[in-house]
Amino acid sequence: MLKDASIDPKNRELGESWSRSLAQAVRDVDQLVELLNLPKSLSPQALAAARLFPLMVPKSYLNRIEPGNPSDPLLLQVLPLGDEFDQAPGFTEDAVGDNQSKTAPGLMQKYAGRALFIATGSCAVHCRYCFRRHYPYGDEPKTMAEWEPAFAALEADTSIKEVILSGGDPLMLTDARLAKLFERFNSIGHLSRLRIHSRLPIVLPDRMTDRLIDLMRSSRLTPIMVVHANHPQELQNDCAQALKKIVQAGITVLNQAVLLKGVNDSIEPLEQLCERLVDLGVIPYYLHQLDRVAGTAHFEVPEQVGRLLIEALRKKLPGYAIPQYVREIPGEGHKTPLF
After folding, report:
1. DSSP secondary-structure letter at 92?
2. Phi/psi at 277 (5° precision)
3. Which of 3, 45, 156, 333 counts the most CB atoms within 10 A of its CB?
4. pLDDT tens profile 118-176
5. Residue 192 phi/psi, 5° resolution?
6. Of 295, 262, 255, which is closest to residue 277 (Cα–Cα)?
7. How many other CB atoms sit within 10 Å of the CB of residue 13?
8. How confident is the model at residue 14 (pLDDT cuts 50, 70, 90)?
9. Computed from CA positions of residues 172, 190, 254, 293, in that sequence, does the dihedral angle turn out positive or negative?
């Protein structure tokens, strides 16, 4: 039985801490430019692009960005740019076939043995390369009653052993809300694993409270956490501490990165990212070729460059420190290896 999230006042205080951090996230372009001492000439295009896809950056992440550097690899991931208006051939709003993979409201199944549950449309950071930046989250379930068809679909398919909580970011839900979801998944006998995909350990590390970790561990389902860091500069201070906390709790932690132009498309940051992850006890899992989502073409790196980078990593790192270089192709039964 899952513990009551409301019992311990200390846990309530911790929960309020991450909520305060979220409330203090920067959502205004002019404020971002001022805080980071960026050229004011960036503001007009950033303001325009933020109307396409809003700006949102937590202060913890902001503190890891080098002030005065418009080319900072973390800044490039969150700064709206005029390039997002480019209509590049082959870039679409649903590049990974989410719509065609739905089996019930809020539930997708692309691969055998696991299903993906859209827990929320909210995130703590708006990554400019987001593959779901056009996703119709407003159409998805919001309450346990509305999710019941998704639970029923999971119950009916005994081949599904693993449920993947995604979004948005599932850790944007309160502990009480997560506890209800976990309890419902626990009741489905053939499920054995609960995988949580979240960027919050990277961008909003104080979300990783003792209560949340206890909640994940108290489920009968084996918990697996998949985080998302693209550059070693992200893995500092409170972020590093949060990752260590999850690992030391005995939860398997994997990292997915996206190959991004200007961010990690050279050997030095990729090598440092992989080494830093391993040092923190996190497994470098995937390096994704960019999903070709409308508004993200300026981030694309040629596949040949990605192959050369993986080849270079193999000459420098042990095998366990090298991520699989993959692309997601709609309709395929698995991620497609690119090297």
Report:
1. B
2. -60, -50
3. 45
4. 999 999 999 999 999 999 999 999 999 999 999 999 999 999 999 999 999 999 999 99
5. -125, -15
6. 255
7. 10
8. very low
9. negative
CA 315, 321, 325, 329: dihedral to nearest 10 degrees? 170
The CATH class that applies to domain 9-337 reads alpha beta
Beta strands 114-118 and 283-288: pairing type? unpaired
Q: Is 259 helix (H, G, I), strand (E, B) or coil?
A: coil
Q: Does the predicted TM-score (pTM) go above 0.90? A: yes
Mean pLDDT, the chain, rounded, equals 94
For 216-229, how does the pLDDT look when each residue is reduced to its tens digit (9 = 90+)? 999 999 999 999 99
The answer for residues whose C-beta is within 8 angstroms of residue 201's C-beta and 6 or more apart is 207, 208, 225, 227, 239, 242, 243, 246
Cα separation, 315 vs 303, in Å, equals 19
Name the residue among 251, 202, 223, 228 with its Cα closest to residue 323: 228
Q: Which residues contact 225 (CB under 8 A, 6 or more apart)?
A: 195, 196, 198, 201, 216, 246, 251, 252, 253, 254
